[in-house]
Amino acid sequence: MKNMSYYITRIFNNKLKLGVILFIFVAPILDILMALVDVFKGASVPVPGLVTFLGSFMTAGLQGVLTGYLPLFLAIIVADDCIEDYRIGYKNILVTKRGKNKYFALNMLKSFTVSFFVLIIPLLLNLLMVHIVFAGGTYIPADVEMLKSESNLLQSYSNPMFYNILYILVFSFIGGIVGSGATALAMAFPNRFILYPLAFILWYISTAIKPSIIGALTPFTVYPLSHYTFTIIFVVAINIIAVLFSFFKVTKYDQV
Q1: Cα gap 110→81, rounded to integer Å
Q2: Across the strands, what pairs with 46?
Q3: Helix axes 160-188, 151-158, angle to 10 degrees
Q4: I need a labelling partner for 204 at 20 to 30 A (CA). Which of 121, 136, 230, 235 fits?
Q5: Tens-place pLDDT, residues 197-223
Q6: Which one-letter DSSP state was computed for residue 142?
Q7: pLDDT given for residue 156 in this prediction
C-alpha cells in the first residue's frame, strides 16, 4: 500500500499527468453537455442509457479521441515515470532498494490499477449523470424495423444498464492491459521516441484489423461482444508479450 501511494503521489505532482487525467474525467461530462445542446435545439430527449459516453449516438468526437489515442494517454499517466527514473538515474536506486523483481511487479501493479480506475470512475459517473440529466427520455436512435431485424440491437436496447456496465468493465480492463503494456515497453526501452510511437502502432494495428477493437468498446451495435473475441485476445496477447519481454530484459539482462 505504501508503494502504491508513492506512485499516486508522483502522478498528482506531475501537471502533464494531471492534465491528461482531467481530460479523461471531463470528456464524458462535455459529452453530456453536447447532447444537451442538441436537445435544446429541438432533438428528442433520448433514453438515458443510450446516451452514455461509450454508447452515445448523438456525439462521438470526444469518445473517438479517447479510444483512438488511449495508449498515449495511459503511457503519459503510468509509463512515463519509468523513462524519467532511467534518465535521472533514480531507477538504479529503486532497483537496489527493492530488487529487480519487486521493482518490475510494482510498476505492473501500478500501471494496471491506475489505468483501470482512471477509466472506470469517470465512465461510471457518466452513466449515473445521464440517468439524472435525461430522466424520462424515450427517444431510441433506430427505427422499429431495424430493431426487429437486428437481434443484438434489440437485446441491448432492452437492457441498456447491463450493457453499459459490461462495456465499461471491458473498456477499463482493456485500458489496464494497455497501460501495463505501455509501462513494460517503457522499462524495456526507456526512450520516449521509442515508447510512444511503438505503443500507438500496436494500438493502431488493433483498431485496423477486422473486427476492430473499437467495436469491443462500443455498446449498442449490431454485433455482440463475442464478435470481438479474437481482437480482444489479440490486444491482451500483444501486451502480455510486451510484459514478458520486458520482465526478462529488466530482471535478467539489465545492469544496475
Answers
A1: 11
A2: 139
A3: 100
A4: 121
A5: 999 999 999 999 999 999 999 998 888
A6: S
A7: 86
Q: Which residue has the cell 510484459?
A: 243
- Residue 96 burial (CB count, 10 A): 11
Crossing angle for the helix pair 90-98 and 80-88, nearest 10 degrees? 100
Closest CA to 80 of 175, 182, 198, 12: 182
Q: Which segments of the chain have a pLDDT < 70? A: 1-3, 56-60, 141-148, 254-256
- In whole angstroms, give the CA distance from residue 116 to residue 232: 16
Per-residue pLDDT reduced to its tens digit, 132-157? 999 888 888 666 556 667 788 888 88
C-alpha cell at position 227: 464478435
Distance CA 184, CA 84 (A): 14
Q: Cα separations (Å) of 194 from 93, 133, 190, 201? A: 24, 43, 8, 11
Query: What is the value of pTM for the model shown?
Result: 0.93
**H or E element: which one contains 16?**
helix 15-40
How far apart (Å, rounded) are the C-alpha atoms in residues 184 and 144? 48
